[in-house]
């Protein structure tokens, strides 16, 4: 017969255990500060690209500053989203619902990151082609 004290059963659980709310809190705090800095830069980048024709947008985002700011903003933002939804789901869902919801939110977050990085890489690495004038046949 094995006797386990309540203290021994609780070790590693709760606020003092490994990978607890403290790590999540710091992760959310760091990503919040990063977003606080990146948001105005991202707004400036997007505002500068508004109204440009298609080829000019490609040329604009093939430059390093707009591409890096956009990538950093969206990656940090989606990591903040993944951590935030994890905390919310842990608080309000149980058992199978929790696992499915966490998996869905993480898949969504990482899919958005992959799409953004792919799109920016494609714009940065594709040759800039001058716009083709439409030929009107009468």
UniProtKB/TrEMBL annotation:
Positions of transmembrane segments: 33-52, 64-82, 102-121
Cofactor(s) demanded: heme
Keyword entries, A-Z: Heme, Iron, Membrane, Metal-binding, Transmembrane, Transmembrane helix
Compartments it resides in: Membrane
Signal peptide: none
One MF annotation (Gene Ontology) recorded for this entry: metal ion binding
GO cellular component: membrane
Entry-linked CDD domains: SQR_TypeC_SdhD_like
Purpose of the protein: Membrane-anchoring subunit of succinate dehydrogenase (SDH).
Protein name per UniProt: Succinate dehydrogenase / fumarate reductase membrane anchor subunit
Organism: Paracoccus chinensis
Taxonomic lineage: Bacteria, Pseudomonadati, Pseudomonadota, Alphaproteobacteria, Rhodobacterales
């Amino acid at each position: 017969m094995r006797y386990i004290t309540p203290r021994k059963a609780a070790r590693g659980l709760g606020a003092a255990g490994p990978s607890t709310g403290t790590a999540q809190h710091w992760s959310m705090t760091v990503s919040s500060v990063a977003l606080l800095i990146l948001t105005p830069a991202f707004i400036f980048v997007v505002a500068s690209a508004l109204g440009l024709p298609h080829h000019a947008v490609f040329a604009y985002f093939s430059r390093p500053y707009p591409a890096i700011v956009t990538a950093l903003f969206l990656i940090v933002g989606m990591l903040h989203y993944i951590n935030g939804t994890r905390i919310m789901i842990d608080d309000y869902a149980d058992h199978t619902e929790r696992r499915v919801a966490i998996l869905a939110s993480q898949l969504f977050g990482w899919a958005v990151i992959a799409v953004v990085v792919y799109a920016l890489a494609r714009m940065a690495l594709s040759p800039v082609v001058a716009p083709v004038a439409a030929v009107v046949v009468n």
